[in-house]
């Protein structure tokens, strides 16, 4: 090979190396941008998770309170019905007893 051929080969390889270095730098910049976007998305998702957990906790607390109120109301209704039933039994026995005498 002649000196000119070696020089052309050298220049071509230098140009190739420069192109690859620029491509790598561009790829690095793109990846850093992508990383920043993903980190921002991660923060948003974590915020959403925290908001949803807070909503879930509030709903669970509200439902537990409602359940307690409903159970108390149910127990009171049962007691009322038992008292009413006992009074009606007493009245019925009072009506039936004098008839037997």
Keywords:
single chain, 101 residues, 1 helix, 97% helix
Structural features, described:
With 101 residues, the chain is mainly α. Helices cover 97% and strands 0% of the residues. The mean pLDDT is 92.
Shape: rod-shaped
What ranges have pLDDT less than 50 throughout 5 or more consecutive residues? Answer: none
- Which structural class do you get from the secondary structure elements? mainly alpha
Beta content: under 5%
- As a percent range, the share of helical residues equals over 70%
Number of H/I helices: 1
* Helix-strand sequence: H
Tell me the distance between the termini.
Answer: 142 Å
- The average pLDDT value, as a whole number, equals 92
Largest sheet: none
Task: Indicate the radius of gyration in whole angstroms.
Answer: 43 Å
Number of strands: 0
């Amino acid at each position: 090979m002649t000196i000119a051929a070696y020089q052309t080969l050298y220049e071509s390889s230098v140009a190739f190396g420069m192109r690859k270095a620029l491509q790598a730098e561009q790829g690095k910049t793109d990846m850093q941008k992508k990383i920043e976007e993903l980190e921002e998305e991660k923060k948003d998702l974590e915020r959403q998770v925290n908001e949803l957990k807070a909503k879930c906790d509030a709903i669970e607390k509200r439902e537990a309170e409602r359940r307690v109120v409903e159970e108390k109301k149910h127990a009171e209704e049962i007691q009322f019905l038992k008292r009413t039933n006992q009074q009606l039994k007493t009245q019925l026995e009072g009506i039936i007893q004098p008839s037997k005498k």
